[in-house]
């Protein structure tokens, strides 16, 4: 997994600069736009991942879905109906093999890791908790670290078995790029365009 992290460092840093989560959380309108963009990405990519049978490799997508948490947050903030009308994000990476799926999932699962810090920030600056609009950033709650370690283990075993690191790495890079592009595209929700 060190190879994957190093190979995707540039894309990872580019995405972090683009999304800039912490600076979006001082203002409720910015936070609503941020959640809406996360929803647009996850609600588009998760159905594509669901088309692949990853359970035989130990990955159960149904236990790790992000879209339902985003829907609860958007409902709490009064935006769900509006955000569901946004067009799906169609600039997704190709996910036509388990190798590509695991590369993509590296990005998706890794995104859950900053949740503890983000949740404290949400509470402090916007008075949001997992119960009233901050559920998505709670990740898997107290199990986030454990689930990340499980994911790393299954991905390492999978990569060793298929011996196709290049495809996994390229899929991770493509997912970082797709995620970044989704956040760069302005959307209008709650009467603001961001």
Task: Give structural attributes.
2 strands, 9 helices, Heme Oxygenase, Chain A, mainly alpha, single chain, globular, two-stranded antiparallel ribbon, 194 residues
Outline the structure in words:
This protein has helices at about 1-5, 10-20, 30-50, 65-75, 80-85, 100-110, 115-125, 145-160, 165-185; strands spanning about 190, 190-194. It is an all-alpha fold and about 190 residues long. The protein has one domain: Heme oxygenase-like (Heme Oxygenase, Chain A), CATH 1.20.910. Strands 1-2 form a two-stranded antiparallel sheet. Strand 1 and strand 2 (about 190-194) form a beta hairpin.
Largest sheet: 2 strands, antiparallel
CATH class: Mainly Alpha
Indicate the structural class.
mainly alpha
Strand residue percentage: under 5%
The average pLDDT is 92
CATH architecture: Up-down Bundle
Work out the helicity level: 55-70%
Oligomer: single chain
**Strand and helix order:** HHHHHHHHHEE
Give the domain tally. Answer: 1
- Side by side, the strands of the main sheet go 1-2
Radius of gyration: 16 Å
Annotation field: number of helices: 9
Give the termini separation.
35 Å
Provide the low-confidence segments as ranges: none
Q: What is the fold-level CATH name, i.e. the topology? A: Heme Oxygenase, Chain A
């Amino acid at each position: 997994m060190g190879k994957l992290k190093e190979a995707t460092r540039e894309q990872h840093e580019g995405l972090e600069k683009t999304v800039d989560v912490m600076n979006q959380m001082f203002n409720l309108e910015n936070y609503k736009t941020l959640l809406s963009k996360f929803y647009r990405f996850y609600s588009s990519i998760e159905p594509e991942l669901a088309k692949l049978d990853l359970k035989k490799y130990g990955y159960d997508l149904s236990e790790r879905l992000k879209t339902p948490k985003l829907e609860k947050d958007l409902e709490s903030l009064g935006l769900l109906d509006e955000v569901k009308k946004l067009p799906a994000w169609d600039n997704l990476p190709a996910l036509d093999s388990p190798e590509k799926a695991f590369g993509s999932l590296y990005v998706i699962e890794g995104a859950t890791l900053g949740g503890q810090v983000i949740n404290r920030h949400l509470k402090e600056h916007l008075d949001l908790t997992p119960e009233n609009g901050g559920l998505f950033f709670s990740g898997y709650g107290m199990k986030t670290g454990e689930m990340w370690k499980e994911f790393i283990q299954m991905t390492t075993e999978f990569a060793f078995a298929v011996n196709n690191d290049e495809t996994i790495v390229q899929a991770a890079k493509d997912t970082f790029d797709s995620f970044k592009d989704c956040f760069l595209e302005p959307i209008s929700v709650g009467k603001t365009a961001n």
